[in-house]
Structure formats: structure tokens, C-alpha cells
Design brief:
With 307 residues, this protein is an alpha/beta fold. The chain has three domains: 54 residues, Beta Barrel (OB fold (Dihydrolipoamide Acetyltransferase, E2P)); 170 residues, 3-Layer(aba) Sandwich (Rossmann fold), CATH 3.40.50.300; 59 residues, Ribonucleotide Reductase Protein R1, domain 1. Strands 1-2-3-5-4 form a five-stranded mixed beta barrel. A two-stranded antiparallel ribbon has the order 6-7.
């Protein structure tokens, strides 16, 4: 009588080198390796079978999207799968002369938004460290992000020290798989600790049950949130650059362009001062903000100049 291996369903919740922590439907975590043709990522749903004291990942379920960042050599590196939401963290400046001249970093935010849209995820924009900024600066920044609110994006004013916006953030995290991005020093680590004060405990649990040991502190790990949903914590992603986007893909990363795509006179319209461009006509009519149109031009030009 031939005995076939029993396969189990699981969620890849951590990865280090060639080892993976897979959480089964019963909540038990098993250290697994993977078949050579597969490249599992944190956030993947997988099937696996027992092998010795651990397991072997035998197949991966279809992904909704893959988060990619450049590695140290500038080559694309897949980091996590099935991301629903990227949380873009912008830090407000401290009170002072420099703060009075501070302008919202729309260029970087728009690049993150383009990458998020092309991933098939939703961006959430945070204005963090609002307790350190003057009331005038906070008011200016809230005015600056109204452009995004008008498009349909959610923006939240946050402070971990003053406990501002944390409940609103938790509500946005519910039932989604989220990951934080933004510039160094924006306060991403503090926000993660504020929404998951038990993070160190969870990290130790993953380490103890998966056999991955100390490596869980330096690799990508998925945590379950008490309100429902998941948070993927990846130190490398917190500082990652942006995906390389083909110029012809760029317009799809601007949500407000969607009603006008395919309406231009020329099929290969770059939406960069072309005759008969439906998007530029909409911008001239005030249906698309001039700031976002200018941002599109900047990104488009950068993509073309970088080849």
C-alpha cells in the first residue's frame, strides 16, 4: 500500500535565508524549507508537508501582489506578498525657523503612492510627530494633504508621545495586511510599537516556535493584530527606495487619471504636453489638481532620464 505525504495549509510569517516559519491552521509554527522552484515570501499562503522535525513548502497559492525593493546592488528584491496597505509616514518638523519654511514632501509621497497603486494596494498617509510641530505648521500640513483627501485617500495626524491618531490608525489597520514605509527618522518604529506594544513578546514567540532563533529580529516577520489584520515588519522595507516604474505604467499610478485613460487622441500618449491629451485637458479644466499634474511631470521626466 502506497502512503502519500499529508499536505497542510499555512501562512508564511517569517523568512530568514533559506528557512521559513509557516503558521498552520491550528496556530502551530513550523520551520520549513522550500522546494527549489518556489520562492516563498512573508505573507504567502502555502501548502507544506512534514519532513523530519520540520517541513517542506510544496506549493504557493496565487498572490494579490508582491512588494519589491532594490537590494544593495540596486537589483529588485521581492520582500513580501499579499500586501493590502502601505502606510506612508511623513514626520512634521520641530518648532523653529526651519519649521516655518518646511513644505510637505509631495514628491516622495507621490512616488510611494504610484508604487502602491501599481502593487494593487491602498496608501494611507500619516503626518507624524504632530506634537513637536507648531500649530501653524500642523495647519499648513493639513491643508497640503487635502489634495490627497480630495482624490479619496485617507490621511491621519499622529503622535505616539501624545497618543494622537493611534485609535484612528488602528481602525485603518483592521482586517488588512499592512506595512510601513517612509524616510528614516519619520517615527515608523515608534508607531509600530504604539500599535503593537507586545511586539517584543510576539517576536520571541515566533523565534521559539519556529526555530529561527535570533534571526527574527533582522528579517521580515508577519504579526497578527489584536483588532484583526496583520502587520509585516521589515527593517529593510522601512528604508527602501522605490520600485522602478516603466514610464508607460506611470499614469496608472495616479488614481485621478483613471477616468481619462484611453480617451487621448493618440494611443501612445505620454500625457506630457501632447496634443489631444485627455488628462492634460482635465487638468486645465481643474478636474485634476495642478500640483499632482506637476508631480506626474517630474516623475515621468525622472524615469525617462534614468533610462
Amino acid at each position: 500500500m502506497i502512503t502519500f505525504p499529508v499536505e497542510y495549509n499555512g501562512l508564511v510569517i517569517a523568512r530568514y535565508s533559506n528557512f521559513y516559519a509557516v503558521e498552520g491552521e491550528d496556530g502551530k509554527i513550523t520551520q520549513c524549507v522550500s522546494r527549489k522552484k518556489l520562492s516563498p515570501l512573508c505573507g504567502d499562503f502555502a501548502t507544506w508537508e512534514v519532513s523530519g522535525d520540520g517541513g517542506v513548502i510544496t506549493s504557493l497559492m496565487p498572490r494579490r501582489g508582491v512588494l519589491t525593493r532594490p537590494d544593495r546592488r540596486g537589483q529588485p528584491k521581492e520582500t513580501a506578498a499579499n500586501i493590502d496597505q502601505l502606510i506612508i509616514v511623513n514626520a512634521l518638523p520641530d518648532v523653529g525657523d526651519e519649521a516655518e519654511n518646511y513644505t510637505f514632501n509631495m514628491a516622495l509621497t507621490d512616488r510611494y503612492i504610484v508604487a502602491t497603486e501599481l502593487l494593487g494596494a491602498t496608501p494611507l498617509i500619516l503626518l507624524n510627530k504632530c506634537d513637536l510641530a507648531s500649530a501653524a505648521t500642523v495647519a499648513r500640513m493639513e491643508q497640503a494633504v487635502k489634495i490627497y483627501q480630495n482624490i479619496g485617500y485617507t490621511t491621519i495626524l499622529t503622535s505616539t508621545k501624545a497618543a494622537i491618531g493611534i485609535d484612528a490608525l488602528n481602525a485603518q489597520l483592521r482586517d488588512k495586511t499592512s506595512i510601513f514605509v517612509g524616510e528614516s527618522g519619520a517615527g515608523k518604529s515608534s508607531l509600530i510599537n504604539a500599535i503593537m506594544p507586545e511586539l517584543a513578546i510576539r517576536t520571541n514567540e515566533v523565534s521559539a516556535h519556529s526555530g529561527l532563533g535570533k534571526h527574527t529580529t533582522t528579517t521580515t516577520v508577519l504579526y497578527h493584530l489584536t483588532q484583526g489584520g496583520h502587520l509585516i515588519d521589515s527593517p529593510g522595507v522601512r528604508e527602501f527606495g522605490l520600485w522602478k516604474v516603466a514610464p508607460e505604467q506611470l499614469a496608472k499610478g495616479f488614481k485621478e487619471f483613471e477616468p481619462y485613460l484611453g480617451e487621448c487622441r493618440f494611443r501612445n500618449c505620454s500625457h506630457r504636453r501632447n496634443a489631444g491629451c485627455a488628462i492634460e485637458t482635465a487638468a486645465e479644466a481643474g478636474e485634476i489638481s495642478s500640483e499632482r499634474m506637476a508631480s506626474y511631470y517630474r516623475i515621468y521626466d525622472d524615469l525617462n532620464s534614468s533610462g
